[in-house]
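Researcher: Structure prediction, please.
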Amino acid sequence: MTVSKNTKTRPNLIEVARELFAKQGKKNVTMNDIAEASKKGRRTLYTYFKSKEDIYKAVIDNELSLILDKLVLVSKENTEPEEKLTKHIITHLSAVKNAVDRNGSLKSDFFRDIYEVERTRRKIDAKEIELIALILREGVSKRVFKPINIEMTAIIIFYAIKGLEVPYIRQGISTEFEKNKNTIVEFIFTGIRKTH
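Model: Predicted structure follows.
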């Protein structure tokens, strides 16, 4: 019983910290606040995290992992490559927007600490590029997409999606995107779809 309880401690501390950061903003939360809200002592908190920065990084990492999990589910769907890539793009933007929206005050920290977020994202980004490459590979092998440099195209598509994140979140292009998402997705497909 003790083992399963201990394995839940770290994720629980991360979630408590996330909620506090979301409500109050990172700079207004102390390690004491997190220890108190989690009903764990400071000693327990410091067993898992060296500092507030350390737990903040864990919160970001956790949020990014949740986004990646959604994209992995899309990649496992039994759908055609075009539909899968379309869903990947839409899921990516929606999941990032939801992560930022659900984190309230953390939203401003997200934009202020964009370099920290980027550092944390590198591993997740590499995994997402692999997922896009898998979809492209399947599309090329099924002759839906023309022969392309899969790795390079996956990187280009990934950065095109990533480039839409901030406007999608910050400037409210989400409603415009919902109306025009097929045009945006079609623009990407124009470069890779095989013409008969």
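Model: The two ends are 61 Å apart (CA to CA).
Researcher: Thanks, that helps.
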